[in-house]
Amino acid sequence: MESELKGKAWKFGDGISTDHIAPGRLFHLRTNLPELAKHVLEDADPEFPNKVRKGDFVVGGRNFGLGSSREHAPTIIKLSGVGAVLAKSFARIFYRNAINVGLPVLICDTDQIEDEDELEIDLSAGVIKDVTKGIELTFSPLPDIMIKILSDGGLAAHINKYGDFKLE
Amino acid sequence: MGKTIAEKIIGEHAGRDVVAGDIVVAKVDVAAVQDGTGPLAVQQLEKMNLIQAKNPERTVLFIDHAAPSPHKDLSNAHKILRDFAKKTGVDLSEIGTGVCHQRLVESYVNPGDILIGADSHTCTSGALGAFATGMGSTDVAVGIALGKTWLRVPETIRINVNGEFKEGVYAKDLILYLIGKITADGATYKALEFGGETIKKMSMSDRFTLSNMAVEAGAKTGLIEADETTKAFLESRGRGKKFRAIAPDEDAVYEELIEIDASEIEPMVSAPHTVDNTSTAAELAGTKLDQVFIGTCTNGRLSDLAIAAKLLEGKVRHPDTRLIVVPASKDVYLDALAAGYIETFIRAGAAVMAPGCGPCVGVHQGILGDGEACLSTQNRNFQGRMGNTKGFIYLASPATAAISAIKGEITDPREVL
Ligand code: SF4
After folding, report:
1. Residue A159 lies in a domain
2. Alpha-carbon gap, residue A9 to A113, rounded angstroms
3. Is B40 an interface residue toward A (CB < 8 Å)?
4. Fold type of domain B268-415
5. Are A41 and A65 within 8 A, CB to CB?
6. Neighboring chain A residues of B139 at a CB cutoff of 8 Å
7. How far apart, in Å, do the first and last CA atoms of chain A sit?
């Protein structure tokens, strides 16, 4: 995984649920993830699937990803090209799922970032640069275990590599 | 140092003493997926070259969310689960059998177990004194294949409930009240542990309602001591031998203590579009309803249907308000049939559907139209949840739901009780 990311911020509010990201009405597309990804977050912003470009960032508020355990939610955010999700806080299952599918999730003060700001993120240094605003934000480091899974490319890749959990 | 229920159970499964904050690899007793998350779990197992189950007799694939299938793509997704069950010998819970969480407590989970399920309401089984938590497809896939998972031992928020409920107030009102108080992320990454006199006296069915909604406050699980009530429940399900008492130590260390006086709680309703957007039923009285849904893993058990049937007996739904009833499982359905509740519902104008999730997650069987409002006994009311972002979902107890179906608008059940 690359540790330097660059792209545009797409801003969402507090409480973006998994129903906003991958709604139940599209349940039948869950075995067709590229198709499901065409609808990513459209119930929060109908334009989002059209405007998101590879490397961009989803920037949420409080409790991002609350709700269901559907791993399809972080998976289709990743499939849409998003480099990382930034939020003030994340719901537990979404956070864990994001790491498992290899999507970086960063906890930081997103109030300072506005829609369409250009961001540069150095994952290993823990720094988010808002180029548009000329400010720098820091984010809380991930637990070691999650860094390990993320750097192996997700949980399936981790297990593939070691045949078991290898978390030390 | 005293231990919480979460610390005790995880410690046993990790083979060492643990405290909140520790990260461990723990043995998994029961692993489950449903038809929305299971196909991806199977695909991940294929990717990992691990088409196997460590404990096939305690691994379950549930077909409940889209059951029976309303779409060919979902029929094909179901085939993936049926094929995997044939190959590995794990249990398959077919259409008509019921909602995963109800089936898990009826037939699979015992006190002291660790259950991981690819469904956020897996926390329901916490009411049996089991560490039950929801995860994604890949986590549960690994749990199925290897019989273990990694866990961070959560801090625990202890919820002590004392006092008697007023008439017309139930476990559902208590949990909505609590979530309104601590908010939808008030317990993120934490375990809730419910105790106190009110919980001690509470039926298993009502305890499941509490634990079911722990995740709506962001919690990892919702634990309740395994006591005599738990034992009697297990006996009624032919698993009396699996009982063991599980309780926190008296000097357990909690991150926070919340005291609730049950006698102060009113019939509650969560208004669109968040569960913590709570009001009393009286405050929302008069809100017109196009649909009322009684069922789900939160409130589709026999005692829930009994409350609703008693209120609907000899009455009919309001002509402008559709009524949908879905028993949570086949056994609940059979018992409700024997007790005459199903006939009461049908005569009251309800559409009674096969056991399963029904319209809860917006896949089938009662999708809302634009601008329509539904009052449901389910656990969440996020925008779009019932299949339409232009729908409005209110959450309440079965009593509030039944009365509101008759009146065609949100009604405090005490108006008729
Ligand atoms: S009844 Fe609703 S909340 Fe419960 S498992 Fe089914 S979809 Fe999920």
Report:
1. no
2. 8
3. yes
4. Aconitase; domain 3 (3.30.499)
5. no
6. 96-97, 100, 155
7. 20
